[in-house]
Amino acid sequence: MTSNTLTIEAARNALRKREITAVELTEACLAAAGASAKLNAFVHHTPDLALEMAKAADARLASGDAPSMCGIPLGIKDLFCTRGVPSQAASNILSGFTPEYESTVTTKLFADGAVMLGKLNMDEFAMGSSNENSAYGPAINPWRDGLTPGGSSGGSAAAVAADLCIAATGTDTGGSIRQPAAFTGTVGIKPTYGRVSRWGVVAYASSLDQAGPMTKSVRDAAIMLGAMAGHDAKDSTSADIAVPDFEAALTGDIRGKKIGIPREYRMDGMSDEIDVLWRRGAEMLRDAGATIVDISLPHTKYALPAYYVIAPAEASSNLARYDGVRYGMRATLDAGDGITDMYEKTRAKGFGKEVQRRVMVGAYVLSAGFYDAYYNRARKVRALIKRDFENAFADGVDAILAPATPTPAFEIGKKSGNPVEAYLNDVFTVTLNLAGLPGVSVPVGLSASGLPLGLQLIGQPWQEAELLNHAYVLEKSAGFVAKPAKWW
Amino acid sequence: MLDLTFENPKPKVIAGALHDWELVIGMEIHAQVSSNAKLFSGASTGFGAEPNSHVAFVDCAMPGMLPVINEFCIEQAVRTGLGLKAAINLRSAFDRKNYFYPDLPQGYQISQLYHPIVGEGEVLVEMGPGVARLVRIERIHLEQDAGKSIHDMDPNSSFVDFNRTGVALMEIVSRPDIRGPEEAAAYVTKLRQILRYLGTCDGNMQNGNLRADVNVSVCRPGQYERYQATQDFSHLGTRCEIKNMNSMRFIQAAIDYEARRQIAILEDGGSVAQETRLYDPDRNETRSMRSKEEAHDYRYFPDPDLLPLEIEQAWVDGIAATMPELPDAKKARFMGDFGLTDYDANVLTAELDAAGFFEEVAKGRDGKQAANWVINELFGRLNKEGLAIEASPISAAQLGGILDLMAKGEISGKMAKDLFEIVWTEGGDPAEVAAARGMKQVTDTGAIEAAVDEIIAANPAQVEKAKANPKLAGWFVGQVIKATGGKAAPATVNELVNRKLGL
Amino acid sequence: MSIDTETARKVAHLARIRVEEADLPALAGELSNILTFMEQLNEVDVSEVEPMTSVTPMRLKRRADVVTDGDMQDKVLSNAPDAREGFFAVPKVVE
Question: Which terminus of chain A, N or C, has less C-beta within 10 A?
Answer without folding.
Answer: N
